[in-house]
Amino acid sequence: MNDFKREKHTKRSQGKRGDGGGKYFEREPARLSAASGEYIEGRNAVIEALRAGRPINKLYIAKGESDGSIRLIISMAREAGAAVVETDRRRLDAMSETHSHQGVIADVAVKEYSSISDILEIASQRNEPPFIIICDEISDPHNLGAIIRTAEAVGAHGIIVPKRRSAGLSAVISKTSAGAVEYMSVARVANLPSAIKELQELGVWVYGTSAEGTTDIWNTDLRGPIAIVIGSEGEGMRRLVEESCDFCVSIPMKGRVSSLNASASAAVIMYEVFRQRSGQ
User: Fold this and answer.
1) Domains located in the chain, CATH noted
2) Is the pLDDT score of 21 beyond 70?
3) Distances in Å between the alpha carbon of 148 and those of 123, 153, 178?
4) Cβ atoms within 10 A of the Cβ of 19, count?
5) Measured at the alpha carbon of residue 95, what is the angle toward residues 92 and 98, in degrees to the nearest 5?
6) CA atoms within 13 A on the CB side of 248
7) Which of 31, 179, 230, 248 has minimal CB crowding within 10 Å?
């Protein structure tokens, strides 16, 4: 793997949001739908899927369930890096297609996740400086699918998402990305600030995005080895993620609306990177 030269820089350290705590259960989503992904239902089926190494986005457990097989499933899921969500049994009933979920439903990924090393290796094989998109808690699968679709179109080498509080590689994302997810490497990491530090140590510049960015993207050189951080739909980048970035850039706007949604912002920035790298 190649290391990439980084010039000296001034690091920003402003921000308002926290990075979240390490609770035993993931926070419950506002709405669960059987159309959000591919599900495996029932205790034995989920155990066998975990034993087989099937990538799992989230494991949904009925509230109050704590017997031996449930504890085993939770332990295996956490060891595999899946988020564990405790939810109301009635919601599991609404998600279930078999109507015999036994208090356990696993939302499985449509493809294997990659690693950061895999993404950097793709850049090396193409003989290009890395171009990576980091999604900080993009929870809407439609937004993440649209980001993946644009990233593939502009030649980005990969996407990095956190394991917690992020949409996983579900059937909805596969459809929204128009199949682009099949050609885009997506890495899932436990801690985004640590992943950012890893990239920086390997020579990759990390640019956060914010309306309060110190410079706009039109006046920022984006041709070198870079990773672009896209914040969540409602809150933007978390404080620790923003503080980890080398710089923070903004998108120039003229209208009265002060922001774009996550996928639109990502598309604007990715195409500016594409434009600069194409020499236009």
Assistant:
1) 38-108 (3.30.1330.30), 116-277 (3.40.1280.10)
2) no
3) 17, 9, 9
4) 18
5) 95
6) 20
7) 31
Closest CA to 131 of 25, 233, 280, 266: 266
Query: In terms of DSSP bridges, do strands 38-41 and 104-108 run parallel, antiparallel, or are they unpaired?
Result: antiparallel
* pLDDT single digits (tens) 86-128: 999 999 999 887 788 989 999 888 788 899 999 999 999 999 9
pLDDT at 170: 77
Q: What is the CA radius of gyration of the chain?
A: 19
Q: At what angle do helices 116-125 and 192-201 cross, to 10 degrees?
A: 40
Per residue in 249-276, pLDDT tens?
Answer: 988 888 777 678 899 999 999 999 999 9
CA–CA distance, 164 with 189 (Å, rounded to integer): 9
pTM for the whole thing? 0.74
